[in-house]
# Entry
Amino acid sequence: MNKIILTHDIFEEAQGLKEEFDSEFSRFYIKEEFKIDDANEVIAEAYLSSYREKTLVLAANLYNLFAQNALLKILEESPKNITFILIGKNKNSFLPTVRSRLILEDKREKEKKIPFSINLLELDLQKIYTFLNQDHESGFEYAKQQIQALLDGVFASGIKLTQEDLKSFDEAILASLNYQRFQYVILPLLLMILERKNKK
# Structure
């Protein structure tokens, strides 16, 4: 079963798996940053190795967003006999669409989550307007944390999202990476959630 392992020390976790798995039936990709070229190598290896059981382990401090997008299809429809294990420090390292395709195993000491500042079950246009007019930090990390807190809030509220909706969260993270203003990135997500909430 394909899964994500969250750990404080990705290299130690990868080393432990190396000792656990037979080297003939596993392949490790241990990187500081997992890039698109690495994703292409993993995809090629998965199809080449599909005639026998093999585990492909990806471990990185940073997973490039384009590399993750490249992996989506193979994670959803893995070749026969191939198992994927992705190791990262936190779930925000992975796009929502990647996380939705994998089992999550958290080996870290629990950290307190910062909840989204609006109760999404009470979301309306006035609350969205007020939120957008608050002072918000600039920068990718803040935007990513807020987008993740928003997604966690959606799941906690029981508001149903489609795969297309989840892709909107991926796109928002990418837009933040391209230095788009936070309010412009978060507004379409809030309006989409308002629409889904009203249909609930």
